Amino acid sequence: MDLVINDFVGDAAEFGEQWPLRKRFIWLTDVANYDTGPEQRNQILEQPLREWPINWQWLETAARNKLLELFNRGKGRYNSFLYRDRDDYECALAECSVTAVGGETTTQLIKSYYPGTAETWDEDKTDIVPGTSFAPVVKIDGGVKTEGTHFTLDDSTGIIDWSGGSAPNGALGAGEVVTANYRFFFRVRFEADSHMDIGQQQDYYSYENLRLIEV
Q1: pLDDT tens for residues 125-169?
Q2: Cβ 114 vs Cβ 25: under 8 Å
Q3: Class of residue 5 by CB neighbours under 10 A (exposed 0-12, middle 13-18, buried 19+)
Q4: 115: domain range?
């Protein structure tokens, strides 16, 4: 599903808490211990998985009904949907730089986390906020390129297609630097196939231990 949970569930006036207040980063490390020496650590993930625990303590009936609809349209864990993280939803130009090898006609939008450090990692970004809501600014070597004239952008994959003629002959030259400023969603699902519908008092409900899992 391409529903955005932030838009679907309504505003803070209905939910009391518009955003989940907690976020968990999950890394996977295999640790082998030896009788005769130090441990060996093997990194399994190149980037963290994210989890957002949600606790809505007081929901009016209209908000509760929207949340139930989203959960049931998601069929529990089965369908994924979109989530806008309040702290991580935009890529600035310095974090979104890709240097061309030469000859490629497409560029995958990325975001670099902690660039310039030994611990940096790059994430491919998909599910881009469409230009009708936040128009990406895309440049080659500092020169602004126009969507629809110089390139096309697939919002679902985050892939820029230059084959329409952006760079000379529609292909990037070796060493050309593509930068972009854009916004994105995380694709998530519910962590469980069931959750408790709790009526606190007439026309007020609460939900505990709802979790969104990055997929």
Answers
A1: 999 998 888 889 999 999 999 888 889 999 999 999 998 654 445
A2: no
A3: buried
A4: 90-184
Same domain assignment for residues 191 and 180: no
Give the number of domains in the chain: 2
CATH code, 49: 2.40.30
Mean confidence (pLDDT) of the chain: 85
Chain segment 176-193, per-residue pLDDT in tens? 999 999 999 999 999 999
What residue has token string 């955005």? 4
Is the pLDDT at 24 greater than 80? The verdict is yes
d(C-alpha 93, C-alpha 180), whole Å:
5
What gap in Å lies between CA 113 and CA 125, rounded to an integer? 12
Are 81 and 101 contained in the same domain? no
Q: Is 159 exposed, middle or buried (0-12, 13-18, 19+ CB in 10 A)?
A: middle
Find residue 42's DSSP bridge partners: 30
Encode pLDDT of 194-209 as tens digits. 887 777 777 777 777 7
Please provide the distance, in angstroms rounded to a whole number, between the alpha carbons at the two ends of the chain.
13
